[in-house]
Amino acid sequence: MTRSPRKTARFAAIETLCRLQRNPLPVTLLFEELAEECALLGTDRHLAMNLIYGVLRQRQYLDACLSLFCRQPLKKLHPFVHQALAVGLYQLLFLDRIPESAAVNETVNALKVVRLPERLQGFVNGVLRATVRGRARLPAPGAPDSSGEPVLNHPDWLTQRWERNFGREEMLRICACNNSRPPLVLRVNPLATSPDAFLARLREADITARAGDLAPAAVLLPGYHGPVQDLPGFGEGHFQVQDESAQLVCHLLAPFLQGGKLLDACAGLGGKTGHILELAADVRADLCAVEPDRRRLVHLRENLARLHPRNGVTIHPCTLLEFSRECTGRFDTILIDAPCSGTGVIRRHPDIRWNRQSADIPEYRKTQRQLLDQAAGLLLPGGALVYATCSLEPEENDELVAGFLHDHPDFRLSDCTPLLPVAARKLVRNGFFQPHPSGSADGFFAARLARH
């Protein structure tokens, strides 16, 4: 009896990309479901995610290369064959540690799992081996295509929007940044250790790391690609994964009042909730967190329990609207880390560039404005409301804030500059915190709105 081929990391990567093409959900959700189905562990899980993210970051470039060696139009290929070619070619061009023979053979073996005909297996084998032989003919990543335009690996609607808003040079820089692999960035928990002590512990474990560029508690691990849970201090709550831009947002909630009441109105996985606890540790503040999504609630509770076992946070598993209707008190400070298009974090979540459409932005804007209006009614006079997104789009950011201020004359824009570390103050424009993707910082936006 012939045994069925094993569902390997390559198969999981190819099948995840196929499912993403059919159903534009967050790729992590699709992959987690498939990883369980394939029983992927450790290095296999890591390899599969590396392949998925790599193909998503280089999709248009990989297709341009495949077109040189594939006689059939790519659009007419069987979806699994197309994604298999992309996964195979990504290994050949971008993963030096994988032998060419392994990249080709293991990719072809993935077709056997779904029982595609031998002629298609031979076709994939032939195209991949032809690209190996003809590597010298391949254009460099980002080089112009046959039309003379650079291959940007982003949809046209997005690059055209960025060129209008930021100019061509900045659009090209953002795209190039998004096509690179970002460094792992951690926020050290000062209630458990210090950045210096944590860096020393990483050095003892022979892990390359350095202090962050912008945020005081940030540590960068540029060469680390293993599971975060394997890092020293994870189980002890010594750190949280968080980009430097995201770390800086919570600084805008200062000053923290003794016994003050704080609200994290869109708590999500709890990254900023935990940071608020750390920044306000000396004032015994009362912190509430609102999060309606059940999956995120699980991670929120897990993260808080790991980082701050005796955290005292009151978690409300409901929407902000539901919370505002039931809440009898008011808050000194409120953070709204609003759901958004996510165009500032495409480097870390490359599926966003292909999942989003221009029509999504007005829908996000509608939700964001509702959240702002609901939060405004919960803020005490003299309080501060910090509105943040991980979007680059003006409609979700400064234009939205301008409309809110017009309709709420009892609020004013408070300049972010003095509340940020000196190194980060260059990222403030017109009073807003507005970094674009670069180095260890994601694209972000934050406005501090003070109530008279």
Describe it.
- With 452 residues, the protein is α/β, with parallel strands linked by helices.
- The chain has three domains: 9-137, N-utilizing Substance Protein B Homolog, Chain A (Orthogonal Bundle); 186-241, Alpha-Beta Plaits (2-Layer Sandwich), CATH 3.30.70.1170; 246-451, Vaccinia Virus protein VP39 (Rossmann fold, 3-Layer(aba) Sandwich).
- It is built from 17 helices and 13 strands.
- It has helices spanning 9-22, 27-38, 42-57, 59-69, 79-94, 100-113, 118-133, 156-166, 168-178, 195-204, 244-249, 271-279, 294-307, 320-326, 351-355, 360-376, 398-407, and strands spanning 184-188, 210-211, 218-221, 239-241, 261-264, 286-290, 314-316, 331-337, 379-389, 411-414, 428-429, 432-433, 445-451.
- The chain has a seven-stranded mixed beta sheet with strand order 7-6-5-8-9-13-10, sandwiched between helices.
- Helix 5 runs antiparallel to helix 6 (100-113) and helix 5 runs parallel beside helix 7.
- The model has no long low-confidence stretch (mean pLDDT 95).
